[in-house]
Here is the input.
Amino acid sequence: MRALTFLRFVVCGALLLAHGHTTFGNNISVGNTTLGAQNQSDQTVAITFDVAWENSWRTSNNEANYDGAWIFVKYRVNGTSDWRHCTLAPAQFTAGTGATIVVSSDSMGAFIHRSTNGIGNVNFNGNTLSWHYGADGVINGDNVQIRLFALEMVYIPEGEYYLGSGGSEVNCFKNGNSASAFLVEGPGAIQTGTNAGDLNLNGQGTNGTVIPAGYPNGFNAFWIMKYECSQQQFADFLNHLTSVQAAANNTSTNFAGSSHPAFTPLVADRAYNNLSVAQATAFADWAGLRPYSELEFEKACRGKSILPVPNEYPWGTTAAVRMESNQFSNAGQPDEAVLTGVLANAAYRNSNSSGNGTGRPVRVGIFARSTGSGRELSGATYYGVLNMGDNLIELTIRAGTAIGQSVDAATHGDGHLRAAGATDITTWQTSAFGGRGTHYASPAGSMGHMRVSDRDNMDSNVGSTSAAYGIRLARTAN
Here is the structure.
């Protein structure tokens, strides 16, 4: 039998920044990708690649976390238009110098991150994963194409943390009938209610229910996307679906003038909007990730064992400085930035009656300035996640409804969608989601939506397509 041959090997980074001079931390690239040794008996083939990104970190103090990249691979058999997900061999990988690789427990992809403490740009060369092509129904004589994708992620470590801040946020979580924050002390089930020690849902959900142990309650370690999904990332998603699936998921004007399978974003690095829950969950399923919960939202913002600041924003203070429409440099370009000397740390569309907000989503990670940017000025959460409170609404899993509580933290996408383009994970229903963060286009008095513990949008009807919604996804750590 002749060996498996690959007619064409194309690297396609899920965050493609074609202009490599960008220096603002939301730039990841994959290169020098080659096929290595093929084992016909166990039907595996090695994939070697380099991966690099900017402003990486790992620390064992304070935050005690690190960033990394989620790597996954797609393939298609020559002569077909159906891109499918590659199953990785769980024990066959090699990390480049300075890196650690962890293949996911379901073999849908792998995380790569620093192996030791450090901060700054990383370039991990000579990494190797192994595709178990036999598990995907590919035989030794098939001609195939494969493409490799990478998404920047942030590791959120295991540990107890607080829900609610003790402030005046709308419908914020509370400890029983008090005004105090609620401490999530372990990975088990959580009783809701108004008794001391219960998690009070405070009008956004049915008290007296039990949030199951399987729900993503934030105590266990998880990974979350460092940035909101960009237009380029979503274009890559659409271009690797069938034409029918792509048509169902292309609800945006962000790709005007282009078509499948060559959707081209108007502004590649701007946060992708004009979508509904259906598109967000389809992207999650395709990428081997999952939506994240409103509890995980607060953990990722606030940090573990950190006493909350009443009415705090994701960057840990009660001060928010709006970016105005005339405060951009290189607007719409890969290096879109905040003008030098401007202290804005949040982008929201129409935050005051003056209407001088940005008027649109901005480049993902825009406030992570190249120099002199601390947590507040960069609008960063405790763990270094960006734009959690501004830019676009985070679609998160509700904690207070039966359908939301039925979502399991162990359920991730399997890389495949229904023929019509929707996810086949039944618990990822529209009614399971609400909105957290941002002040996209609301009246002046609702800036509170940007606060970590504000739950005013958790009962919103998120079933329709909205310019205010964005995509940010997660994955439970092995």
